[in-house]
């Protein structure tokens, strides 16, 4: 789409201080799309209504929510705060958008599944959009699964299941690569992941196409922790070393279990055939751009 066509769009974005919310604003600037960050609190209905009346958006994006700091273990001890934003807030926003006839692009999570007998580790059989979440190990994931189920009733919502997000900014502590590069020990399990540099522009395109429903918002295929760290060593830091430990050993140092799964990205790939597989995307969007300069993680 040319700049002229982009002028007809006007996005209202929630999550200004978040990683995805911040990147969305930069993408809108680069594409010449008018955008405003919402100032209302998601759980305060009137403040959202006021935002929409002021901004008069063509589409609304929700990149707000609590994931916990430094990680999702925070949600285990802050359950009411987690519900307030992730459940009450998200539903309020979806409800108002429906009332106003607006499509809501909602960045959700794919950490609501875990490998099981029907989707065994290494089988290449991924969970599909219509599958029922089977991972309730963490309170964060439990609330996200509840919200996804309720949002199915809102025909104006596009739910994007993000997993283990990665970007080319290797100095960002929320970047999955940066996280595991700093851990003392890592597990080594293949997972579906989301390369933001490639997929966030796709989410803007999804809004332009008024797509709704659930999408597994991950690059096709899986990649393991060790495969990523091997690429890190090859492209970024030849002296980099790491240690592995088992899930049982990991369980002793975390409060809540973590989700490991493969999501089937066929639906997204059908809509966007140019989308790269996870390993190709990692090389093209993350490791190659960082190779020339070298970065300090």
Automatic annotation (TrEMBL):
Out of the domains of life, which is the source? Eukaryota
By what name is this protein known? Answer: RmlD-like substrate binding domain-containing protein
Q: Which taxonomic lineage does the organism of this UniProt entry have?
A: Eukaryota, Viridiplantae, Streptophyta, Embryophyta, Tracheophyta
Pathway noted in the entry: Carbohydrate biosynthesis
Q: Look up and give the organism this protein is from.
A: Brassica oleracea var. oleracea
**Which Gene Ontology cellular component terms are annotated?**
cytoplasmic stress granule; methionine adenosyltransferase complex
Enumerate the UniProt keywords alphabetically.
Answer: Isomerase, Oxidoreductase
Q: Which SUPFAM superfamilies match?
A: NAD(P)-binding Rossmann-fold domains
InterPro entries, per database record: dTDP_dehydrorham_reduct, NAD(P)-bd_dom_sf, RmlD-like-bd
Q: Name one GO biological process term.
A: UDP-rhamnose biosynthetic process
Q: One Pfam family from the UniProt entry?
A: RmlD_sub_bind
GO molecular-function term, one example from the UniProt record: dTDP-4-dehydrorhamnose 3,5-epimerase activity
Domain RmlD-like substrate binding residues, every copy: 11-182
């Amino acid at each position: 789409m040319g700049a002229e066509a982009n002028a007809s769009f006007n996005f209202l974005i929630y999550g200004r201080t978040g990683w995805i919310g911040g990147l969305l604003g930069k993408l809108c600037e680069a594409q010449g799309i008018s955008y405003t960050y919402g100032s209302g609190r998601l759980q305060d209905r009137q403040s959202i209504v006021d935002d929409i009346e002021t901004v008069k958006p063509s589409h609304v994006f929700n990149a707000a929510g609590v994931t916990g700091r430094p990680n999702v273990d925070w949600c285990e001890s802050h359950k009411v705060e987690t519900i307030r934003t992730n459940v009450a807030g998200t539903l309020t926003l979806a409800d108002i958008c429906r009332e106003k006839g607006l499509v809501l692009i909602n960045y959700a999570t794919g950490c609501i599944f875990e490998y099981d007998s029907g989707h065994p580790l290494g089988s290449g059989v991924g969970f599909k959009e219509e599958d029922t979440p089977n991972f309730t190990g963490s309170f964060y994931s439990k609330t996200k699964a509840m919200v996804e189920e309720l949002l199915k009733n809102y025909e104006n919502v596009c739910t994007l299941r993000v997993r283990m997000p990665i970007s080319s900014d290797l100095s960002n502590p929320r970047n999955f690569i940066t996280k595991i590069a700093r851990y003392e020990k890592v597990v080594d399990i293949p997972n579906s992941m989301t390369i933001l540099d490639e997929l966030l522009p796709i989410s803007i395109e999804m809004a332009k196409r008024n797509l709704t429903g659930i999408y597994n918002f991950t690059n096709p295929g899986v990649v393991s922790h060790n495969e990523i760290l091997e690429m890190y060593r090859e492209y970024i830091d030849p002296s980099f070393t790491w240690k592995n430990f088992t899930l049982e050993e990991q369980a002793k140092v975390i409060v809540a279990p973590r989700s490991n799964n493969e999501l089937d990205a066929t639906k997204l790939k059908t809509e966007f055939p140019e989308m790269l597989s996870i390993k190709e995307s990692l090389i093209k969007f993350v490791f190659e751009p960082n190779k020339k300069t070298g970065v300090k993680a």
